[in-house]
Amino acid sequence: MKGFSLVELMIALAIVGVVSSIAYPSYQGYIQDTYHGQAQADVKSCGMALERFYSNGFTYQGGEARCTLWSPSSGTQAARQYTLAVTPIPLDQTYTIKATPVSGSCDGKCYTFSSDGTETVD
Predict the structure, then answer these.
(1) Is the pTM of this model over 0.85?
(2) Residue whose C-alpha is closest to residue 55's, from 14, 90, 20, 47
(3) Taking the CB of residue 11, how many other CB atoms lie within 10 A of it?
(4) Residue ranges making up the domain that contains 20
(5) pLDDT digits (tens, 9 = 90+) for 87-116
């Protein structure tokens, strides 16, 4: 007789289940780290757009229209993982850009970039 017994198939299925239960959370963590890195890149890209805007009119006021206010910026707003917020400080001399996750809390996943080059992760 050729083939597999039911016991052999159940053992193989159990092995696949154990391996997938270990691999899937690790994969999800990797995906979240990738989204966080993309949010940092999008925040810096927005900062560069604000600096270009400032060089034309010597004000940051209204410059947030040059930024895509979600990340990943290459995707649609419905598929966003992070929301970007641009806060101009009075007198239009500085700005702060903050990326916060759409779902969940910060827990080391929020990223802030200021016009003076200060970066914080909180």
Answers:
(1) no
(2) 47
(3) 12
(4) 6-121
(5) 877 776 889 999 999 988 888 899 999 999
